[in-house]
Amino acid sequence: MSNAKKIEVTDVILRDAHQSLIATRMRTEDMLPICEKLDQVGYWSLEVWGGATFDACVRFLKEDPWERLRQLKAALPNTRLQMLLRGQNLLGYRHYADDVVEAFVQKAADNGIDVFRVFDALNDLRNIETAMKAVKKAGKHAQGTICYTTSPVHTPELFVKQAKDMQAMGADSIAIKDMAGLLTPYATYELVKAIKSEVDLPLVVHSHSTSGLAPLCQLKAIEAGADRIDTAISSFASGTSHPATESQVAALKGTDYDTGLDLELLSEIADYFREVRKKYHQFESEFTREDVSVQINQVPGGMMSNLANQLKEQNALERIRDVFDEIPRVRKDLGYPPLVTPTSQIVGTQAVYNVLAGQRYKTITNEVKRYLQGGYGQPPADVNADIQKKAIGNESVNEGRPADLLSPELNKLRDDIGALAQSEEDVLTYAMFPDLGREFLQQRQDGTLKPEELLPAEQHGKSGMGTAVATEFRIDVHGETYEVAVTGVGDSGAGKRKIYLSLDGMPEEVVFESLNEYVAEGGSGRARASEPGHVTTAMPGNVVDVLVNEGDTVTAGQAVLITEAMKMETEVHSSIDGTVKAVYVTKGDRVTPGEVLIDIA
Q1: What whole-number distance in Å separates Cα of residue 49 and Cα of residue 72?
Q2: For residue range 156-202, what is the model confidence (pLDDT) as tens digits?
Q3: What are the residue boundaries of the Lipoyl-binding domain, all occurrences included (predicted)?
Q4: What is the domain range of residue 40?
Q5: Which of 508, 544, 524 is nearest to 593 (CA)?
Q6: Does 122 fall in a domain?
Q7: Is residue 238 part of a domain?
Q8: Contact call for residues 471 and 485 (beta carbons, < 8 A)
Q9: pTM, whole model, 2 decimals?
Q10: Same domain for 203 and 269?
């Protein structure tokens, strides 16, 4: 232990832990009461913001994410606050112009962020340069991040070069981000040793426990010279989350690496969050447990629960293993991108389409097309030329930094959102999620913000409940509107499907029988597709745009609709030449496979 030193700890309880285990649903009201104790621990930092928290605040919790940050800053005066920033993607799912990136970083710093962990899904460092400069300009800590993955091209030498390049960029520290739990203990030792021997910066190891190996990896990282580890308080630890804070503190206690953190105080914090977790039982999933198969399919935890929900909506949960098998094949076709937002969604959604369509790349999502055109940056390895040709034809591929093609957009965003934005922060919320952001700001102005409902604890485990996120419908019966949340799918028999639903919070078991061919699943009342000119979708989702009107002439293969599923957009095409007889959907409508959305004859 000649080079032993006190190990620093970043706790991810207020961000990545609940993102990994309960779909990022923890509300600010459940964070603030324990902040006084969290602030006494002596963590190096607390990760509190970024990742999917911004999206979940606006989409589900109807909270202002900036207000959450300000409240946490006030409640944690003695602890550095840290966020996860997706480089040029910020917290959205596309690249933003440099002026938006600069403004976002400055506002995050103004509102309380001290440490910015900046990464790019492809490890294309051109995509983090603007954000890193902005962090330094704001006088904050810039942490350059290596997205760890395994493939024929991802070698320790490549990662060392990346760390050196980030140091040259002005990084204050380096993080190894193992989002899928792919690190093994001895590979960790070699990688940390290699980086520390060439880069004289503090090194952090962030590893999810998906395969059960993360605590061992962190121990080997510490022996190899790592300075800091990311952990989660035990009541939100392990599985697709992180090593338990208390366990790692106990493991190092009494050694030269002793963290100096108080186990009794940590255990009081764990007791608090153990109770909090019960509130969110409906977001628990069997796919967040430890599973060493991640070493084979490389699916990160957050992606697992996403895929499970997506397939459950389609009554195809039994195909999830097929999807897991398909993911490595799609990843190879796309040049081995690390699986982290947004590439995890890009690869995962395409794998779902490939499996459910029964034919690989029969439908190619818009994001895969954009990726293959260089829209996200340089893939780590060569992509499959046949798939690229099928996706983009003879269109050119952009070899430059994707954001170089973007004009400044902040003024246009300000104009677009207008008086609904009461601050620059509001403009940036709108920039991240235009439709969602506008809806959120409008509801805030109207006083109609309403968070999604939490199911009472007594429903936990009852009638198969508590294992899936509810699918919600509105049903009109004799002039009365009922809001129905379907929270579990039961047995299906001949012509019947048993489901469990909650009306006004009361669980009931109901058997629905198909009344006639015009009642599609999901209660939309749309007819079932039966003719070649009936346009339908392969995946449940929402309509983003309708590209044709009644009376338009279309050709086979023409895009007529754009739908969104799992945050990925897909064009839906006409299968015949003809005239649009009827359009049954508008922007924002929920759609399910098999329904007639457009009729072409």
Answers
A1: 10
A2: 999 999 999 999 999 999 999 999 899 999 999 999 999 999 999 99
A3: 526-601
A4: 8-283
A5: 524
A6: yes
A7: yes
A8: yes
A9: 0.82
A10: yes
